[in-house]
């Protein structure tokens, strides 16, 4: 996990960091992602994490949206591109992504479930 | 709210210049406006999401210096109508008509997943997800009409 250290992705009203929780890498989103092109900032960050997860054969990552109040469609594109990269890999190389979402935030309950269809069997949803 | 009590119809109209920072301000204002008018916070959240996506598109693509957003609570139909109008070129109009047709084809989930797959191969810096997201995540009926060089995007929500 030490080699998975990647600088946080910092935006005007939001931050995305990678940390370790219970031995599992966890990508934590906080704030409001509503600038004009968050994809350009978030996707390189997620892609860097993706490459390290694959290199180190890490079997699972958590993606925590509990404190993300809002994300626009450009930000959603960053998530979609990342998860599609997992989908494009051979099945035996794919890692599990556990999406932790906030049940009291409407866009998360309606929107994040859709991501499961991008990598069937490899994305797990956990509402809190 | 007072206006709604007096006439049975709550409405708000905002005209603003195409500045990105205004999108968040208007999104927040309209979310609060719906929340105090309709006892359904999820609906207020969904309308807020739709307003944000429509306004982002309007700010990005308008050919004029004026964007108009209108929200009406239609109590007799138990619906809320949001319209956003802005200037468009003829080429943009054709592209948008094609988009609307594509987004309204199939179920909201099918249309959204289709746009997600397309998004990963786009190289123009756009996501192309906003309108499909409104139909799926916000459960809205989407349509457009043209008045000369103005496009009027309409999102219709049922009050349950």
* SSE series of chain A: EEEHEHEHE
Q: What share of residues are in beta strands of chain A?
A: 25-35%
Strand order of the largest sheet of chain A: 1-2-3-4-5-6
Number of helices of chain A: 3
What's the average pLDDT of chain A? 95
Total count of strands of chain A: 6
SSE string of chain B, helices as H and strands as E = HEHHEEHHHEE
What's the N-to-C terminus distance of chain B? 19 Å
The value of Rg of chain A in angstroms is 14 Å
The major β-sheet of chain B equals: 5 strands, antiparallel
Question: What integer value in Å does the Rg of chain B equal?
Answer: 16 Å
The counted number of beta strands of chain B is 5
Q: Helix segment count of chain B?
A: 6
Give the structural class of chain A.
alpha/beta
In helices, the fraction of residues of chain A equals 25-40%
* Cα end-to-end separation of chain A: 26 Å
Q: Give the assembly state of these chains.
A: heterodimer
Give the strand order, joined by hyphens, for the main sheet of chain B.
1-2-3-5-4
